[in-house]
Every structure is written in structure tokens, then in C-alpha cells.
Hints:
Elements: H1 3-12, H2 16-37, E1 47-48, E2 59-62, E3 68-70, E4 78-84, H3 91-106, E5 113-119, H4 127-134, E6 141-145, H5 148-157, E7 162-165, E8 174-177, E9 181-184, E10 190-194, H6 204-217, H7 222-233
Amino acid sequence: MSVEGVLAKMARSAPRAAWRRLLGLIAAGLLAGSVAACHKPAAWHGIDVSGALPPLSFTMTSAATGRPVTAADYRGKVVMLYFGYTHCPDVCPLTLSNIARALKRLGPLSGKVAVLFVTVDPNRDSLTVLKRYTSLFAPEITGLRGTPDQLAALARRYRVAYSVTPAHGTEPYEVTHGAGVYVFDQSGAARLVISSLHTAKPDIPGAADDLKRLVTHGAPKGLFGRIMALFGRL
């Protein structure tokens, strides 16, 4: 029986949560072993989260088409995932502008990257508003809008904190959200978190270099890649 067959058989007899933890440990061990066995690769500029976060998975509505989309629609591309909102006064426009600058450095390779801007304020961010807002930055950026449950599930999956407090009396409408940008490879595996793009000194060259490496080198191959693919189907 193949390795995938053995793992799939194990999955059918174990609780999903326990099985996901086991696969994550196996993948992390394989990744550590492969690094030790080979020449040390060049360091990433972003934070390497390979094996530490689950693969990309969601169901939301695309502001570009008005239709439901899932992570499967973006397989084959490097995906940047960012949570924000269109009324954001500074952090969101700065982050998206810096993402656009990094994409510009990629030249034609930017077409192999999809940037997903997930609104944490769907009450005010309609699909029309999202589409108009994201078009201000780069064609690779697509707005996504989900139901409260869909948004909460996606944020919880990647440990992203956010809150929306409607205006009350003299208190203004207030929204908070995480500022990290999550990067996934072509198979949907989580690879990096870029944390500098909302700061006064963003590492644009570093972000562009990381994206180029992921675009040109592709998803992990061999047993590690197959295990990560199985992990993503759970």
C-alpha cells in the first residue's frame, strides 16, 4: 500500500482534530529532516511558517465576480492573504500599496500571484465597495466578503484577531484587525507571514524576493508535498 493509502486509512479511524495534529507533526519532521540533509537554503525574509499553519481553506464571495470562491480556485498561484477593511485610515492602504510595490518588482511573474483582501467589516464593505477599493492598488488584488461565520472561521484558522464595535452614543465606529500578510504556495500550503508591510520601513525587496522564490520554485515535492496535500483535504 502507498504512503498516502496508509495515511488515509489511519485518518478514517482517528478523530479529525487528532489526525490533523499528527499530519502537522509528520510534515514538520520531514521538513526539518530535509533541511538537515541538504545544504542550508537561503533564509526567507518573511517568517517561515511551513508546517506550523494549516493550508489555505475558505469559502467566500469574490468582489471581482460576485460569485462564491474557495481556496481551490487559486490553486496553481502563490496566494497572499490579508485581513482589513476599506474604511481603514492608514494600515490597510499602506499594506496594500506596499504589496503592489512588491508585485511590480516581479514584472511578468506577478501574474502568478493572487492577493486576497478579506474584509473584517462586511456590514459596511459591500462587494461593490470592495471591488472599487482593491482596484486602486493592483489588478492582482481581489476583495473577498464572507458571512460572519465564514469570516470567523477563516480568521480562527490563521489565528487572526479582529473586532468591530458599532458607533454608540459619542463612541465612534471602531474596527481592529491583525496586520500580518499570510503567503501560501501553489499547492495551498502556508509558507510565510510577512509582518513589515504596514510599517514605516517595509522590506519591499525582501517581500518581492520571497514571492519570486515561491513562484519559480513551486510547491514542495515528494513525500512532504503529498502529505501537505492530504492535510489540506481534511
